[in-house]
Amino acid sequence: MTSSATMPQPVSFGRRVKRFMADRPLVPLIILLVILVVILQILRPGIVNERWLANTVKFAIPLAILAGCQTMTMLTGGIDLSVGTVATMSAFIMATQIVNQDPAVAFLLAMMPAVLIGLINGIGVGVFRVHPLIMTLGTSLIGTGCLQVYQRTVIASGAKIPDFLNWLGTGLTYGFPNALLLFVPLAVLIVFTLRRTGFGRLLYAVGDNERAARLSGVRYWQVITALYVISSLLAGITGLLYIGLIKAPSLSLAEPLVLPSVAAAVIGGTSIFGGRGGYTGTIIGALILTVLTTLLTILQMPEGARRILFGLIVLFVTAAYLRIVEER
Amino acid sequence: MIGNARLTTNPLPENPLLDATGVAKNYGAVAALRNASLSVLPGEVHALMGANGAGKSTLVKILTGAIHADAGRVLIRGETRDIRSPAAARRAGLLPVYQEPSLIPDLDVLSNLRLTGTPVEPFRAWVRELGIPDLDLRDTARDIPLAVLRVLDLARALAVEPDVLLLDEMTAALPANLAEKVLEVVRRQGDSGRSVIFISHRFVEISALCDRATVLRDGETVGVVDIVPGVEEKIVELMLGARIVKTQMTARPAGQAASTATSRPRLGVRNLCVGTKLQDVSFDLANGEVVGVVALEGQGQDELFAALAGSIRPSGGSIEVDGQPVKFTHPSDAIRAGIAYVPGDRTEALAMQRSVHENIALPFSAALRKWGPIRVHKERTVVASAIARLQIDTRAQGEVQRLSGGNQQKVTIARWIAANARTILCFDATRGIDVGTKQEIYKLLRELAGLDKSVLFYTSELEEVQRVCDRVIVIFGGHVVDIFPVEEADEPALMRAAYGLPRGVTADVGILADPTSKPSTPEAVP
Predict the structure, then answer these.
(1) What stretches pass through the bilayer (chain A) (predicted)?
(2) Least CB-CB distance to B371: which of A197, A215, A217?
(3) Which of A19, A128, A143, B411 has the fewest CB atoms within 10 Å, counting from its CB?
């Protein structure tokens, strides 16, 4: 209840810390990130250096952008499971079309499936009220199927990674990954959209109380359609960035990022029930997951055990974080 | 003033079947029931009456084990029973039939019967008795019309031969022929030595059916009366209680509305129909006018407001704004026409996890072309002035859910002050909030009227009518049954009208005077 606001009384150190963290939910996340890095340094002294940092950031960025898709859709109580497929499609189409096409044309062709899938997702969820989980899972499967068909038509022409994407994906300038040139403006834009635009406000409102939003004159389908198109566009851009990083076009290029992107958003404090969360937490969530992956790789465990541990840690971190941040 | 005096003339002839005394129930700081009692004799049909919010449904829920009382005692056949669950109430011989049908929609009738262990043959017999000869037990409940479902609910309850049958607005939504059968069966239930607690808003039924009535007011039992001709005046008086005395006319600039009434009405409602719930409703709302709407629960007022707010589409008639006919397909259409809806249930209107500021500013961003960057300073000024205007306590403004109910309600109104809506539809906006905030809201609505805005004000608290309104329309059974100028709208008059009793001198009105079908009964004349 609200009594805590009005009744000043001596509180224990533990409660004060808890209150502090509840007010600044980013603090415990950053602390966790630092702890993970320190553990890494202890296990393998000297590993934390400039090169490692750049590498970690490079791999965290695609995850962070996809996690941005999840953050925005989760704010409305939805989810976008088609981001992996969309990213894969635009990467694959880019890599195969660049062989014969002008780069601009190749880029447009690569983004087309993203717009299309986003639009279908948005209309399905916003107009026909299909549950986002089912809707995006469905379009994701359809997209994968289409990609397989497409693959046969370009099997003769081969594929190559455009130099520009190579530079963006793996290049460093003064020790900083070039991908930051894409990511920083994008992140600023997402944060600004969520905090300071009418659209961002509507995302929170729709996710918190759809009925109240409707009574305020908000048309649900418009918000949802725009949201899923934006989410898909971001996924498409991520695909282009990711192919520059991985350099091997395949039909399941970005698929392994889908569930970690959901986990990053959840760890970052965005509620899957909608109305609560933000992008800054998600970015740190993505960094935490990336460092965690490195950590588990270094432990040289069998793949199975590593996955089990990864899952356990994600569950534990999320539960602990919610306990710290939710004061009720 | 009427106290808690028992109005029965003769002492109780036998031991009551059900005897509840001193029942109390609090929800947080709100006392839903304070000191309710109900005593039902064997073979009696007993009416439970009270205005909206008097505590009827709370008492019923306690008796049937749906919720637990904070205090009080329930005796069944002289034994103290602790009714912990609906199943316990059933074992104790108490069976309710609620307004909402309780058959599971996806199961057929037979499976529904098995679920509650209802014997099939008696059920079949009762269904026939109740006027449905051709029921197929294999029918899925979902496919059965609502009226029939309610009858099946009743038959299901009758089939297990409960000692006390509890009927909540049983005849609402029933066509006349079914309603008649139901009343007949209920009456015979009483004759055969079983008891019925009968909740109804219809005096006609109560007078035809019941032996006695218990009247609740503000969570207290204020009287038990024998049903005799002419008693409805007594009941209305009991339901209103001391409030008649303290009714006061607030100084309002009268005649203001009259001056503007000659010009084009701000909002014109013409023969509006919504399904079967609202029929042929017409009235005008002028600029600078506050029109009250008074109705018992579920008389069609919800549909009226929803249609005006653009939430549902009317099935007939038309709505005019400033003389122009309009068709609303979404609340945003109504908002564009300057009509804002303030629902009584605040959880319907607010994004509870968001800030006061965001909630007030929400309509600003609704339209597609307002999706861009927010002009923070301009918006902050507008919102701050609305907050100041309503004196919202913003100490806990980070999340609206931490505000008190009164402050939450102020936020829902402040939103439309900030958006500068010309017409506000207030649906029981003062429900469940503290007295101080209520006063502020009355004052605010009057001020809005002074600024030539118009307000449609549904209220379940009759005394509010004279504090706020210029005129009042009364809805009963989906029809506008009366329109009062505020001078004549004292509580007894409104209460009578809300119960569908004709206006006029009290003495002439017999208990069986029914505005729709007038059966001439000799007892009606005193």
Answers:
(1) 25-43, 63-93, 105-128, 174-194, 220-245, 282-302, 308-325
(2) A197
(3) A128
